[in-house]
Amino acid sequence: MTDQKLRIRQVVSLPNGTFEATTDVNASDLGRGKESLTAALRDMQSKSSEVLTKYIKELGNKPASNEADVDLEEVKEDDDEAS
User: Region Disordered: which residues (predicted)?
Assistant: First the structure.
């Protein structure tokens, strides 16, 4: 019988794309204790952190913008109702 694998996947959605960090754990390793699961989760988190760190560095290299990404409508009060 072949050893079954557990795939752990974390998806990170950023404005410049969606990134995925995955790691595989052997089912038999999980029966031996939490150390292998902890190591697998740590490995996956490390991969996600690398993606986020790279994205944050890229943001730091871009000039700041004063423009908002959303359209705002000016609210005007009706002068007739105020009097």
Answer: 62-83
Q: Which residue do the tokens 């990404």 mark? A: 69
Residue 53 CA to residue 46 CA, distance in Å, equals 10
DSSP 8: E
Q: Would you tell me how many other CB atoms lie within 10 Å of the CB of residue 54?
A: 12
The pLDDT tens digits of the residues spanning 5-50 come to 878 787 878 777 787 777 777 777 766 666 777 777 788 788 778 8
DSSP 45: H
Estimate to the nearest angstrom the gap between the alpha carbon of 41 and the chain centroid: 15
3-state secondary structure at position 6: strand
Does residue 52 surpass a pLDDT of 70?
yes
